[in-house]
From TrEMBL:
Residues 9-75 form the Dihydrodipicolinate reductase N-terminal domain. InterPro entries: DAP_DH_C (IPR045760), DapB_N (IPR000846), NAD(P)-bd_dom_sf (IPR036291). GO terms for molecular function: 4-hydroxy-tetrahydrodipicolinate reductase. This is Uncharacterized protein. The keyword Oxidoreductase applies. The lineage of its organism: Bacteria, Pseudomonadati, Pseudomonadota, Gammaproteobacteria, Cellvibrionales. The keyword Ligase does not apply. One of its GO terms (biological process) is lysine biosynthetic process via diaminopimelate. Keywords: NADP, Oxidoreductase.
Length: 348
């Protein structure tokens, strides 16, 4: 029997989710929520460029809440960054949970305890009302910087420091909503600064969740988590898949989040984002890597071609989480609570 799924939003991640569900015999798309009035009434398959699926898009939240479904995959652009109501995502998530639907979201809340008891209690209360479970996921955070280091740590006898380094360039990522609107590439320093208050707050929250989950996973008590960032501007006009990046606009970002214990950086997540590979030669180059300093010293490197479709990573990780979240007990289910997530149903 296939799990009945509602997809929430049809951006880059949501469209990939619909395509993945359409290929799986263990999943069945039952509903689709969209924000754009122009998409209402369209078939979900048509919207994402595949065969018709017999599911019409709606922007009526009450219709979604009334639907019979096992799980909602919630993948909008984050309201903490976009729109007039920063709390909109949390309101929607709690309403869905209270209606009896399990929810998997990619907007954050992977480890919601970091935001305090009030938020955590609100999600848990919604889960209890609906007898449902909630899970936040992603590719990073949500896989590279947390699940993989935690898995690698099972080989450790002593851990002095975990250092995660993500080095990415996005010249081939054809999503202006993510690259420009969300990440802020192509913005003037003034426009980036104006946006950055909300964006950096959201991003800092995401990676604080990741750092704290890794610390809790290895039993390390943190005193605090620090965050710092810097940007570099394009030295000339650039053309990337997401659109033009003008000279003098933001073209590179360097971030660091560090979990501090007894004055030492114990969990470090360093992220270097270039909108084009030619940017910022002074910053580290290479590939994604994880280093665990201690005994034994462990190093795991992801080669340049480790994934030939990085754009689908977040969506597929959410899809593969569905059986585990549906089958989980009521409440918030983090990666520390769920079984090891595998591609169940992907090998049919």
């Amino acid at each position: 029997m296939a799990y009945k799924i509602i997809q929430w939003a049809t951006g880059n991640v949501g469209s990939q989710v619909i395509k993945a569900i359409a290929q799986r015999s263990d999943l069945k798309l039952k509903g689709l929520f969209v924000y754009s009035e122009s998409k209402v009434g369209m078939d979900a398959g048509t919207l994402v460029g595949i065969e018709k699926l017999g599911v019409k898009a709606t922007n009526d939240i009450d219709k979604i809440l009334a639907m019979d479904a096992d799980c909602v995959v919630h993948t909008p652009l984050p309201s903490l960054v976009f729109g007039d109501d920063p709390g909109a995502d949390l309101d929607v998530i709690c309403a869905l949970l209270a209606s009896g639907k399990n929810v998997i979201s990619t907007v954050g809340y992977m480890y919601p305890k970091v935001y305090g008891k009030k938020l955590m209690n609100r999600i848990q209360a919604a889960c209890r009302r609906g007898g449902s479970s909630f899970h936040g996921t992603g590719a990073n955070p949500g896989w590279l910087g947390d699940l993989i280091p935690l898995t690698l740590s099972s080989l450790s006898n002593r851990i002095d420091q975990i250092h995660i380094q993500e080095i990415s360039h996005f010249e081939h990522y054809a999503s202006p909503e993510i690259i420009c609107d969300n990440m802020g590439f192509g913005k003037t320093p003034k426009a980036y600064k104006a946006q950055n208050a909300r964006y950096s707050s959201w991003l800092n929250g995401l990676f604080e969740e990741s750092v704290q989950m890794v610390a809790d996973g290895i039993g390390l008590k943190l005193d605090n988590i620090t965050a710092k960032s810097k940007q570099i501007l394009a030295p000339e006009d650039l053309t990337v898949a997401a659109g033009p990046i003008k000279k003098g606009t933001v073209a590179g970002q360097h971030w660091e989040w560090a979990g501090i214990s007894k004055g030492k950086k114990r969990i470090v997540h360093e992220t270097i984002w270039r909108v084009h590979d030619s940017i910022a030669d002074q910053w580290p180059r290479g590939v994604h890597s994880i280093t665990i300093k201690g005994h034994p010293k462990l190093y795991l490197e992801f080669g340049e071609n480790w994934n030939d479709d990085l754009g689908s990573a977040t969506s597929i990780h959410a899809v593969n989480s569905i059986p585990y979240v549906v089958e989980a007990s009521c409440g918030v289910q983090t990666f520390l609570d769920l079984p090891w997530i595998m591609g169940r149903g992907a090998a049919q």
